[in-house]
Amino acid sequence: MVVKNNEQGVSSLHELLRQRWSPHHFSSRAVGREKLTALFQAAQSAPSSYNEQPWAFIVATKENPEDFGRILAALMPRNQEWAQHAPVLIVSVAKINLDRDGKANRHALYDLGAASAHLTFQATALGLYVHQMGGFSHEKIVEEFSIPEGYEPVAVLAVGYLDEEKSPAQMIRKRKALKDFVFESHWGISSPSLALEDKKGFSIN
Amino acid sequence: MVVKNNEQGVSSLHELLRQRWSPHHFSSRAVGREKLTALFQAAQSAPSSYNEQPWAFIVATKENPEDFGRILAALMPRNQEWAQHAPVLIVSVAKINLDRDGKANRHALYDLGAASAHLTFQATALGLYVHQMGGFSHEKIVEEFSIPEGYEPVAVLAVGYLDEEKSPAQMIRKRKALKDFVFESHWGISSPSLALEDKKGFSIN
């Protein structure tokens, strides 16, 4: 599959990755039960170090305004402004110690990030959008939901359909060029094994 | 799209997530330059906190046996046994401090995990498989590739085509049930907003 992308020139980026972006304008349309379930089945399917699956999620939908409000109130005010319109908020939580021996799991956050990315792919496939936030009070979330010792809330995900009237039709994706983060043989040496990019970081293959 | 999955009963899990698994048997077939590039374009497309893109990758292919050997030698012996047959090894590296203010980036590993999941999703779309490893010597990798202060190698990814003769036709995915990690209202309370699962954690919708 070859697709055109604003930023990448002609790219073979999968269409679900190309379509994904983090909007600020969500429609009030609810997310159905089956779709919500599919999001967590996607997270469940992620790989993890020692198959520890060091992840948990706290979900709140607009159908339960009290719980929704408890997550919303923990967000930074500038996130509350737009996230209040999303129909679903989800807290992603990492289990920071290993089940196998109780030691620190140095891959807990990495694996949780992968699980959240799986959730997001699935969302995109279902016509949904996800906007993740790091800007929230960890203390408030821990207290509100009685998150126990050994677990750490990491991000809040707003999930829903796009408000197509208020949202821009496309986003511009600002990213570092591959040559600036894909190295070979030595740190800082751009990999010669990749297809050429032009000076703006656009792939020209 | 509704698909049947070994473990989930009838599930709407996207087929690329369903197909993904971490094999131990790679074919010697090389990964072409365009496909290799597409993997990193996928990583590039991942979302990140403050759009910091706190990731870098060191790639080695079998075409460059010296570099390949340097990554391979850093793996734990039990990983070397099978990973030596993969045509590509990639080290994923997190930038642990923020560009914006130099403080610790508490989402660096989370975002790198998402970027690696994007890479893996793209790999699956291209007929490739990825097996990630946490079992390697961080010190050896840092020294061999002169990874500077402020960056941390997190995983090594073996990438390639499946050796279909040696590999099982399917994997069994062992995962916790949704009810054990998707909560609502309070920690440990299974979310009632999801579609029902039976006692084995299989979705029955």
What would you note in describing this structure?
The structure is a homodimer of 205-residue chains. Helices cover 29% and strands 21% of the residues of chain A. With 205 residues, chain A is α+β, with helices and mostly antiparallel strands. A four-stranded antiparallel β-sheet of chain A has the order 3-4-6-5, with helices on both faces. A two-stranded antiparallel sheet of chain A has the order 1-2. Chain A contains six helices and eight strands, in the order ββααβααβαβαβββ. Strand 3 (55-61) of chain A pairs parallel with strand 7 of chain B.
Keywords:
alpha+beta, two-stranded antiparallel sheet, disordered C terminus, disordered N terminus, 6 helices, 205 residues, homodimer
